[in-house]
Specification:
There is one protein chain. This protein has about 400 residues and is α/β, with parallel strands linked by helices. It folds into two domains: about 150 residues, Alpha-Beta Complex (Aspartate Aminotransferase, domain 1); about 220 residues, Aspartate Aminotransferase, domain 2 (3-Layer(aba) Sandwich). The strands form three sheets. The protein has a seven-stranded mixed sheet, sandwiched between helices. The protein has a three-stranded antiparallel sheet with strand order 9-10-12. Strand 3, helix 6 and strand 4 form a beta-alpha-beta unit. The longest helix has 22 residues. It is globular and about 65 Å long.
C-alpha cells in the first residue's frame, strides 16, 4: 500500500465514507480486473457485447433487458433523453433541442440532490425540463397528483431518486409513486446508483432503473441501465446522439458483466460477519476511551442496503471542538481518513466498514484518538464552522493545480 502511494506521490487514503466517487468509489474486484485484461487485446462488435451484457445481467436482475453506460450519471441523462425521443432517430439527432417534444420530467423537489454534481443538471443535459413537485421538506400523494393533473400532456417521464443524499427528505414512498405514475401512463426511471438490491426495483414495477457497476459491483467504472426492453432499446439509441460523448469501452462492458455475476455469488454471511466484527471493535475502543463530548451508535443504511455504520456525534460544548474540525483533520491526516459526512449539518458523521482493508479499522481508531488529543490541546484548529467545512470542497476544486 505504502509503495504505491510513495511511488506516485499520492496521499494514502483509508475509506470509511462508503462508495464515494471523490476517492475512487470502490476497489475493483479481481474477477472484473481479469475480465478487462481478457478483452483488452481483442476487437469486438460492441452491439454484440452489449447484447451479451443484456442477456446475462437482466437474467440476474430479473428484468427484460439491460445495457452498460459510461457511468450511472451518463445513464441518467440518456434515460431521460430516450423518454423524449423514443425510437425516432430524427429526435435523437436533434437533442438537446427539445422544441415541440413532450419534454418535462416529474420529480419530487427533495430528490434534486447533489451527489457530487446536481441531479437537476444531469436531467437538463438531455434538453429536458424539470417539473418539481412537493415542498422543501416533504412531498405527498396529493402534491404529485395535482402536479400531474396540471401538466399531464407535457410529462415525458417521472424520476425517483433512491439515495442517502435525500434520506432527510420526507418523500412519497416509491411504491405509491410508481402506482400514481402507472395510473397516468407515465414511465418511471429510478436512479438507484448506490443501491445493491437491484432486482427489487423491478418487482415493484420500475420501467427503467439505473445502477453503478463500479460501487457495490466492484467492476471498472460504468453504469448499468436495466428494465423493460422497449425502453432499454430506446436508451441504447442515444449512442447515435448525445450519448456518444458518454460512450463506454469494451473493457468496462465486459468487466460489468463479470462484476454483476460475481456480486450475486458473494458470501453474504462472511461479508456481514466481517462488518459486525469491525463495528464491535470500534464500539469497544470508543467505550474504553470515553472521549469527552463524543457519543456514538450503530445505524442501519437509510435506503435498505445490507450495511450498518457507526455514527459519531460531537457535543462541542463538552468536547471544546466542533464535529467539522474532527472530520476535517481526519481527512487532512496522513493517512487521510475520509468519513461519511453528507449529513454533518445534523451534527454527526458515520464510519463505513465496506471498503476497509485488513487492519485498517485499528488505524482509524488510533488516528481518531491522536486527532482528538490534538484538538483538545489546541494544536490544530478546533472551531471549524459548518459554513467553513461546506466551503472546503469548492475551494479544493478552484485551487486544483495551483
Amino acid at each position: 500500500m505504502k509503495n504505491f502511494y510513495n511511488k506516485n506521490n499520492l496521499t494514502p487514503i483509508i475509506n470509511v465514507s462508503g462508495f464515494m466517487t471523490k476517492i475512487g468509489a470502490s476497489i475493483t474486484n479481481k474477477k472484473s480486473i481479469k475480465a478487462a485484461n481478457d478483452i483488452f487485446e481483442y476487437f469486438v462488435n460492441i452491439d454484440e457485447l452489449q447484447a451479451l451484457a443484456s442477456k446475462r445481467i437482466s437474467k440476474l436482475l430479473k428484468t427484460e433487458a439491460a445495457a452498460i453506460t459510461a457511468s450511472a450519471a451518463g445513464g441518467l441523462t440518456e434515460s431521460v433523453a430516450s423518454m423524449m425521443t423514443g425510437k425516432d432517430l430524427k429526435k435523437v439527432f436533434k437533442l438537446p433541442d427539445t422544441t415541440n417534444m413532450v419534454n418535462k420530467v416529474l420529480i419530487q423537489r427533495g430528490h434534486l440532490t447533489n451527489y457530487g454534481a446536481e441531479v437537476e443538471q444531469g436531467i437538463k443535459l438531455s434538453g429536458a425540463k424539470i417539473l418539481k413537485c412537493g415542498l422543501k421538506k416533504f412531498c405527498t400523494k396529493e402534491n404529485i397528483e395535482k402536479t400531474i393533473s396540471k401538466n399531464k400532456k407535457q410529462i415525458a417521464c417521472a424520476m425517483y431518486v433512491v439515495s442517502h443524499h435525500c434520506s432527510d427528505y420526507d418523500s412519497l414512498e416509491l411504491n405509491s409513486f410508481i402506482k400514481i405514475c402507472k395510473k397516468n401512463k407515465i414511465p418511471v426511471i429510478i436512479d438507484a446508483a448506490s443501491e445493491e438490491y437491484m432486482e427489487d426495483f423491478f418487482k415493484i414495477g420500475a420501467d427503467v432503473a439505473i445502477f453503478s457497476a463500479h460501487k457495490f459491483m466492484g467492476s471498472l467504472t460504468a453504469g448499468i441501465i436495466a428494465g423493460k426492453k422497449k425502453f432499454i432499446k430506446n436508451i441504447y439509441l442515444q449512442n447515435l446522439g448525445i450519448g456518444r460523448g458518454m460512450k463506454v469501452g469494451k473493457e468496462s462492458i465486459y468487466s460489468a458483466i463479470i462484476g454483476v455475476e460475481n456480486w450475486y455469488n458473494r458470501n453474504w454471511h462472511l461479508e456481514i460477519n466481517n462488518q459486525n466484527n469491525i463495528l464491535q471493535y470500534w464500539l469497544k475502543f470508543l467505550s474504553k476511551e470515553k472521549f469527552k463530548g463524543i457519543s456514538f451508535e450503530v445505524v442501519a443504511d437509510p435506503t435498505g442496503n445490507k450495511i450498518n455504520r457507526l455514527r459519531i456525534y460531537v457535543d462541542s460544548k463538552k468536547s471544546q471542538y466542533t464535529i467539522q474540525s474532527l472530520a476535517f483533520h481526519l481527512e487532512k491526516n496522513n493517512p487521510a481518513i475520509f468519513v461519511r459526512d453528507d449529513l454533518i449539518h445534523f451534527n454527526h458523521f458515520e464510519l463505513d466498514t465496506c471498503n476497509l482493508k485488513k487492519g485498517q479499522e485499528k488505524i482509524v481508531m488510533l488516528e481518531f484518538k491522536k486527532i482528538i488529543n490534538n484538538l483538545i490541546l489546541k494544536k490544530i484548529k478546533s472551531n471549524i464552522s459548518l459554513d467553513e467545512y461546506l466551503a472546503k470542497s469548492k475551494k479544493e476544486w478552484l485551487s486544483w493545480l495551483d
